[in-house]
Amino acid sequence: MKPILRNLSFVAAFGLMAAYVFLALRGPQGLPSLLEKRRQIQQLQEQNQNLKVDVERKQERIRLLKTSREMQELEIRRRLKLQREGDTTIFLPEGKKAAPK
């Protein structure tokens, strides 16, 4: 009779552990939370990569502005709206932005 009680207690203990694991995985910090965190991590990694590309592009522009006299002149004329004698500049009105749907 003792082996039956011992086997029954092992089965009961295993059942309780299985129930605990099931409830822990289904709870607020279980699998849904883990999947959401992984999605957030992936989204942040994509944003980080986009920012790195943006920083590299801006660093290249800064390097060009430091070294290229022509780029400096173009930037000065663009920002200060200056032009050389004999140049013709046409300013077009900015297009209206489409209303969000």
Structure report:
The chain is mostly helical. The protein has a domain at 33-81. Helix content is 73%, strand content 0%. α2 crosses α3.
Largest sheet: none
Distance between the termini: 75 Å
Radius of gyration based on Cα positions: 33 Å
Query: Helix coverage percent of residues?
Result: over 70%
In short:
This protein has 101 residues and is an all-alpha fold. It contains 3 helices and no strands.
What key attributes describe this structure?
rod-shaped; mainly alpha; 101 residues
Topology:
Layout: H1 2-26, H2 31-67, H3 69-80
